[in-house]
Amino acid sequence: MSTLDSIAAGSAVGSMLPLLTAVVQRPQWSVRAKKIVAVVTALIAGVVTVAYVDGPEQFQHGLPTLATLAAVLAASQSAYDLVWKPTSIAPVIESATSPKEAPTA
């Protein structure tokens, strides 16, 4: 596949990634902790995307691999800020998947 195919796949993966990230994150975490989890998740998803779309031999080509990783990261951050956060879907998923604290007596 071409570099453009990899970037397109990375953009598609990245745009849906905030929903998966919301399952892992917790509402009580700091903004910094949430950002670190989002970036690390995007980088992992980018590596998986490169390996899936172009095969492991693609990692020998630095620039296309880096472009795909950047596409996943940029798409995930943009989709979160433009779609998932304003519609409250990601925050609702965070709350729904967070363990509930036991009431203290």
Describe this structure in words.
By secondary structure, this protein is an all-alpha fold. It has one domain (3-97). It has helices spanning 3-24, 31-54, 62-84, 89-97. Helix 1 runs antiparallel to helix 2 and helix 2 crosses helix 3 (62-84). The radius of gyration is 16 Å and the shape is elongated.
Descriptive labels:
105 residues, mainly alpha, 4 helices
SS content category? mainly alpha
Q: What share of residues are in beta strands?
A: under 5%
Task: Give the overall shape, derived from the CA principal axes.
Answer: elongated
The poorly predicted ranges are none
Largest sheet: none
What's the number of domains? 1
Radius of gyration from the alpha-carbon trace, in angstroms: 16 Å
Indicate the percent of residues in helices.
Answer: over 70%
Count of DSSP strands: 0
Order of helices and strands: HHHH
Overall mean pLDDT stands at: 87
Q: Helix count, per DSSP?
A: 4
Query: How far is the N terminus from the C terminus?
Result: 60 Å
